[in-house]
Amino acid sequence: MTDAANDDAARAAALLREHRESIDRLDAILVYTLGERFKHTQAVGKLKAEHDLPPSDPAREALQIARLEDLAKKADLDPEFAKAFLNFIIEEVIRHHKKHQE
Ligand SMILES: O=C(O)C(=O)C[C@]1(C(=O)O)C=C[C@@H](O)C=C1
């Protein structure tokens, strides 16, 4: 390899390392944020079970989806992806809520 090609490869490796450090930091934020969200939804599940409330609330979900799609657009994130992601999380929450009610 020439010196120029070596320099180029070293620059690319450094950039890749920097991006991966940011990705790891953001993944940790996502995991801690989800953990915190689940603490609240577990409390909501308990409350719903104690008061005989239905596990899911489609009207609330519609509001959340609309809000998230709007946020996603502002954050330069694909709104369809944001919607699918929230639905995925909510499905899991509803599964937990149903367990509380068993
Ligand atoms: O807000 C509620 O009623 C919840 O149970 C929480 C939550 C959510 O994960 O955001 C989950 C299920 C409902 O259908 C709506 C929202």
UniProtKB/TrEMBL annotation:
E.C. designation(s): 5.4.99.5
Enzyme class: isomerase
UniProt KW keywords: Isomerase
SUPFAM superfamilies given in the database record: Chorismate mutase II (SSF48600)
SMART domains in the record: CM_2
Domain Chorismate mutase: 10-101
Molecular function terms from GO: chorismate mutase activity
A UniProt-annotated Pfam family: CM_2
Protein name as catalogued: chorismate mutase
Species, as recorded: Pseudodonghicola flavimaris
